[in-house]
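Lab notebook: predicted structure, single chain.

Context: the supervisor wants predicted structures on file for every construct in the current expression panel, including those that have not yet been purified. This is the next one on the list. No modifications to the sequence; it matches the entry in the shared construct table.
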Amino acid sequence: MAFRNIKVPHPKKRKPCLCISSNKPALLIFAPHPDDESICATLALRLIREAGFTTFAVPVTLGSDPSLRGKRWREFQAACNILGFVALEPLPCPHGTKLEPNLRKSSPRLWRSITEKAAEIITQANPALICFPHRQDWHPAHIATHILVTDALKLSQRRAQKVVETEYWHPMKKPNLLVETTPEVASLIMTAIAAHHSQAERNPIHVLFPAWLLENVRRGIELIGGPGFTHPAFFFGTLYRLGTWTGARLRPLLPHPLIVPATQSLKNFLTHLESSS
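Prediction complete. Output recorded below exactly as produced.
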């Protein structure tokens, strides 16, 4: 396959960003694994380009293979460099520890230390939006990331924090936002995914990425627009669920689901978002 031969620079060692601040509105991504920051990057890339956002990305884990941790961290930084994201240092998940939902009960001190670090990052970044997987996203690390971020939101004592939930391994039942992924953006994301050499060699997700985008639009046009909705004039898209953290739970943010084509600026979308608060 042609896409299998995408050339990307091999990752170089870089120091993580230590200054988590921006004079621009910020999106903060909690990626369960290196490559998750890239797969669901459509909204982040459009916010950077259309609304002047800064995007911070945090790897919650560096995978389950201790021997690959250094390589995966460098790959994460390379992918963030391609996308224009600011790569933040990984959360303190010890070597050999699998991030799973039951870690919260089996190792409460460890869970607390990871959660406290996530809460510290949230407080420092002061993001307009926080991005993380939805609660039913099948993979144990994705589910655990959802629980961890909501625990961190409790610790940070934030109210009315806007969040955007993502899907990959298991579809959301009720997404409320479909964002067009232009061919240009899709190509950039594929290049970033391919930068994760250690994963692309065993599972060429970057090759399959366009099919995933097509499936999102196939599902999303009627999940978002309603039964019988006319197909929009685009074929690539990414589904999300926008919500608000109330201090105790997540609640849907939008009164009506939205489809945001590339012809509609996300500046207008953000204005709509503020009026929905």
